[in-house]
Amino acid sequence: MKLQKLTHFSPSQLLLPDSNWLFKYGVLDKEKRNSMKVGWNAAFGTACHGGIQAMLTIGADLDEAIDSAYLSYDFHEPAEGEAEEKQAAFRDDIAACIENGVDLLSGLFGGATEEQSVEVSLPGVDLPVYGYIDLCTSTAFCEIKTKARRLGAVKKDGTRGMTKGSLPKEPEYAHLCQVAIYAEATGLTPHIAYVAAHDAVLFSPENCEQLQPERLQYYLARMRATAIRREALLRISDDPRVLAGLIDPQFEHPFYWNHEFAEEAKELWKV
User: Are residues 268 and 241 in contact, defined by beta-carbon separation less than 8 angstroms?
Assistant: First the structure.
């Protein structure tokens, strides 16, 4: 068994724990990675994200954007074990989430370019870091993050209600790391939008200290340190079984191992 050949890093790669990164990008090929099923939260995010982008970038009207989002969502095949209560509840929230996102962002990002590709080289890192920015203008960029409702406690009759998708008071660590990469690559002013069915919030350097240039350098340094560590691992061996012996798989974290290839991963670590 040999490692898959890595040609680059991405923010999503660098934000995974070492074990999940090794398995997903070192053992699985691209076809298998693309076939991995995700849950209703991800499907909701993809549907809303697409609708918001379509309205802001190509001028799609609201009905068109919502219909396209429904189509994306309805054709989703969820990961095994996903709670059925989520499916209908999230679908009901798609239209409101798209409207909130467009209302929040149209002033700054109406007419923006979507999925702008970027590349950056980090000092001491051989592989480049590639990424795609959600919305990009000549002066600023924005990453859109959706917040779906959450399952409530089990009721006496066995059913479960849904609570509101809470919006953060400040950007989340992983999103700051991602944005730090994009800010380094582009030199543009960073923004992070969190959008839910009931509300939306936009963070920028003007209202968020973590998005100011000197603070973003901290998050960039964390991503760089991860990339350097990963390249050091790759220099040890091209056999994933050897590298697996150096990394704790952390199978107790089901979020990262909740996919159809988990048993294959456990075989690699001989669990």
Answer: yes
DSSP characters for 83-143?
-HHHHHHHHHHHHHHHHHHHHHHHHHHTTPEEEEEEEE--TT-SS-EEEEEEEE-SSEEEE
Mean pLDDT by 10 residues, the chain (271 residues): 91 96 94 88 96 97 96 88 84 97 98 95 97 97 95 72 85 98 98 97 98 97 98 95 93 81 90 65
Residue 80 burial class via C-beta count within 10 angstroms: exposed 0-12, middle 13-18, buried 19 and up: exposed
Give the Cα separation of 213 and 205 in Å (integer): 8
d(CA 151, CA 167): 16
Does the global pTM surpass 0.90?
yes
